[in-house]
Specification:
The complex is a heterodimer of chains A (about 500) and B (about 120). By secondary structure, chain A is an all-alpha fold. Chain A is built from 19 helices and two strands. Chain A starts with 9 loop residues before the first helix and ends with a helix. The mean pLDDT of chain A is about 90. Chain B has three helices and no strands.
Chain lengths: ~500, ~120
């Protein structure tokens, strides 16, 4: 029997225990302190997980080769835990306003996070597949958790049906790769497959796996579900899934392609180039014409998947230094994207009133006069999403485009720069509307003469998002070193 | 030559089937009724409108059954190998059963097992 190295999965166990604990609390008769007990169980689990992650020790493989704890898994787990820790307070107002089941909601959020952490630790195909399922199943339910809301139901249904379809791609690809490699373990997979010359099995398998992950990342042409699902799901769920799933999926994709299929780079490299180019164009053009800010942010998240994929495409370079630079840039970009997009989605709740979120551009008109701080925070986030210094988005794009040019992917860098310029239009439109437009009479919504009541928790989440965005933009060195360390242990 | 065995086997299967049906036909009493002459389908009417209204409780019970059924299946490999797995295996299975048991307590307390 393979010995179990429990300390490796300590953070996952902490999150799982908190999830079970919250549901268990819900089974007891309600007391006045019930809600805060559930809330603090979630925070306690997340804090314990971050502490255990910090003391995780040397990089190692465990559980009979199924899991690996290394700088990459730690970097991504930290990002996932941060997103979860911000999603919990961001969810509470929506839970209260929509009358959702609090313990179930938060437990599903944590279960999904546990699946994501296992995904970035996966060291064989079976564990990788199971983790994808764990994180997805919890998210399908979360999307539809507002059971009486037709849009939430639509969101869950679309996500589930298309997600199940994509899972088929992923699983079939893994089966073919197993057939070609003779092993499910990432160590030895590349050598097991050998060259891709004439190996239909390997090429088909790698392509199907890339397609499956492209769906999870919302990369074009597998992006059709993103706008509807992100728009229909409760906003805190959207905020969580738009950042955490991408971080986890990108981490797993990097580990699988660069760590497990280095010799097959001529098979997946062109695919990554194609996906990155198409995704940047489709995402940015789609976002241009949206009237709903939430939908615009959904398209923007597609576009940012494309930017992150530039890093994966550059990592197909046979030169190890360029491969490390590409993955390192993609990981840093995922972290930068996480703080700014999560903040932006939560802002939509913050800018509205309890139970009524800001949705269209018109709802934000004149916000700077009523809520100057909220508008200022959103401006930081929008400037960062547009890629203007001194913010995380600028540094992220800079290292990505630099890695792409060095690895010989000049075309991708050019497309990236042009589409970023397109993006400036719709991101800054939010700023213009907030600062320069007069609030108009919108049907079904009164114009507030003064500041409406809002939840301070949401304000804190937006402020933390904006602060981290500036921190990553002004002092990127620590984080870049971290992501470079994560990327360099990836190469065999 | 080795295919002869397969042919022999197929012949035996076919012969036995025919023999049983023939014996039942020749020896058994035959009093046909419309209900009796229909093919047997677990006691449910063979043909019906597909869009019938059904209590949503059936769905819940079926889902719960599948969940707990499949989780119980994981006990079988452990039962086969429990001597080799030893105390560590017992402990891990204990954790597993507690989580499954917790699920049962949860659905029970949430009232998913109540019919009304």
């Amino acid at each position: 029997m393979p010995t179990a190295d429990w300390s490796m999965i300590g953070p996952v166990l902490a999150v799982l225990a908190a999830a079970l604990g919250m549901v268990a609390l819900d089974l007891f008769p309600r007391r006045p302190w019930h809600r805060s007990a559930v809330e603090w169980t979630a925070y306690l689990g997340l804090i314990a997980a971050i502490a255990l992650l910090h003391g995780a020790g040397e990089p190692r493989v465990g559980f009979g080769g199924a899991l690996i704890a290394d700088p990459l898994s730690r970097f991504m787990s930290l990002a996932i835990l941060l997103a979860t820790a911000l999603a919990v307070p961001a969810s509470l107002p929506a839970i209260a306003a929509r009358g959702l089941l609090m313990a179930e909601y938060l437990a599903l959020l944590l279960l999904s996070a546990a699946g994501m952490m296992l995904l970035v630790m996966s060291h064989d195909l079976i564990t990788m597949f199971l983790s994808v399922e764990v994180l997805s199943l919890a998210l399908y339910v979360l999307c539809g958790i507002a059971r009486k809301d037709a849009r939430s139901n639509e969101s869950a249904m679309k996500y589930f049906v298309l997600g199940a379809f994509a899972t088929g791609f992923l699983l079939y690809g893994m089966a073919l790769v197993y057939g070609a490699a003779g092993t499910v373990f990432l160590s030895g997979m590349s050598d097991g497959i050998g060259g891709t010359e004439g190996s239909v099995l390997a090429v088909a398998g790698v392509s199907l796996i890339v397609a499956g992950f492209a769906f999870k990342l919302g990369a074009a042409p597998f992006h059709m579900w993103v706008p509807d699902v992100y728009e229909g799901a409760p906003t805190p769920v959207t905020a969580f899934m738009s950042v955490a799933v991408k971080a986890a999926g990108l981490g797993a994709l990097a580990r699988l392609l660069v760590g497990g299929m280095a010799l097959q780079a001529d098979a997946w490299g062109p695919l990554a180039v194609f996906l990155a180019a198409l995704t940047m164009v489709v995402g940015n053009l789609g976002a241009l014409t949206q009237a709903s800010v939430k939908r615009m942010l959904a398209y923007s998240s597609i576009a940012h998947s494309g930017y992150a994929l530039i890093g994966v495409a550059s990592a197909a370079s046979p030169e190890a230094t360029y491969a490390v630079a590409g993955i390192s840039a993609a990981l840093f970009y995922a972290a930068a994207y996480l703080v700014m997009t999560l903040g932006a989605f939560v802002f939509l709740m913050f800018a509205g009133r309890p139970g009524q979120e800001a949705e269209t551009y018109d709802h934000l008109a004149g916000l700077a006069r009523r809520r100057p701080w909220a508008a200022a925070l959103m401006t930081v986030l929008m400037v960062s999403l547009a890629g203007i210094p001194p913010t995380a988005g600028f540094i992220g794009k800079f290292v990505l485009f630099k890695a792409a040019v060095e690895a010989g992917q000049v075309g991708l860098a050019v497309i990236g720069v042009i589409t970023s310029a397109v993006g400036v239009y719709y991101y800054l439109r939010v700023v213009v509307v907030m600062y320069m437009h007069e609030p108009e009479e919108v049907p079904g919504r009164k114009v507030e003469p003064e500041a409406p009541p809002f939840d301070p928790n949401l304000g804190w989440v937006v402020a933390i998002g904006a602060a981290l965005t500036l921190l990553l933009g002004v002092y990127p060195t620590i984080f870049l070193n971290f992501s470079r360390a994560a990327a360099s242990t990836l190469l065999p | 030559m080795e295919w002869a065995i397969v042919a022999l086997y197929a012949g035996a299967v076919l012969g036995l089937g025919v023999a049983f049906l023939a014996a039942s036909r020749l020896l058994g009493p035959s009093r046909p009724k419309p209900a009796k002459s229909e093919p047997y389908e677990c006691g449910v009417p063979l043909q019906a409108e597909s869009r019938i209204r059904m209590s949503v409780h059936f769905y819940l019970v079926a889902i719960l059954f599948i969940l707990f059924d499949i989780e119980t299946v994981f006990l079988i490999p452990w039962a086969v190998l429990h001597r080799q797995l030893g105390a560590a295996g017992l402990l891990e299975m204990g954790i597993f059963i507690s989580v499954v048991g917790f699920g049962l307590v949860y659905v029970w307390r949430r009232g998913a097992l109540e019919w009304e």
